[in-house]
Amino acid sequence: MKKINKTEPSFYTNFVKKNKPNNWENCFEITYPIRKYILENEQNFQCAYCEGKISPDKTKSHIDHFKRKAGHLFPELTCDYFNLLVSCNNPCHCAKHKDRTIKKN
């Protein structure tokens, strides 16, 4: 996993302040711009986990919540920019594998 220096863009901050989303589904309109921003400015178009090259296209990558939002794990971090990474869509490793294997407390 690569070290990522996070810098929250103003368009994301403004979106959250204006819309006050209470779940990730309410962020749908900003998912592509934020995925593109993270890949271009923070991850050098690389998966946060395996460092393979990826594009912002939703068929090639997705936004991962490092501390998982599902269930009762970390719902308060759902829209926290510093909890967002971009991962490849490989189901055998990286974020999709992580999310399938994490156990709830």
Characterization of this structure:
The chain has 105 residues and is an alpha+beta fold. The chain has a single domain, classed as His-Me finger endonuclease fold, CATH 3.40.1800. It has 3 helices and 2 strands. It has a two-stranded antiparallel sheet.
List the helices and strands and how they pair.
Layout: H1 10-19, H2 28-41, E1 61-65, E2 84-88, H3 94-101
Antiparallel strand pairs: 1-2
In CATH, the architecture is 3-Layer(aba) Sandwich
- For this structure, the CATH topology is His-Me finger endonuclease fold
> What is the topology, as strand order, of the major beta sheet?
1-2
Number of spatially distinct domains: 1
**Poorly predicted ranges:** none
Arithmetic mean pLDDT: 87
The CATH first-level class comes to: Alpha Beta
Number of beta-strand segments: 2
Radius of gyration: 13 Å
- Tell me the quaternary state: single chain
Structure classification: alpha+beta
Percent of residues in helices comes to 25-40%
What shape does the CA trace take?
globular
Alpha-carbon distance between the two ends: 24 Å
Which percent range describes the beta-strand content? Answer: 5-15%
The number of helical segments is 3
Task: Give descriptors for this structure.
single chain; 105 residues; alpha+beta; His-Me finger endonuclease fold; two-stranded antiparallel ribbon; 3 helices; 2 strands; 10% strand
Quick overview:
This protein is of the alpha+beta class and 105 residues long. It contains 3 helices and 2 strands, in the order H-H-E-E-H. The model has no long low-confidence stretch (mean pLDDT 87).
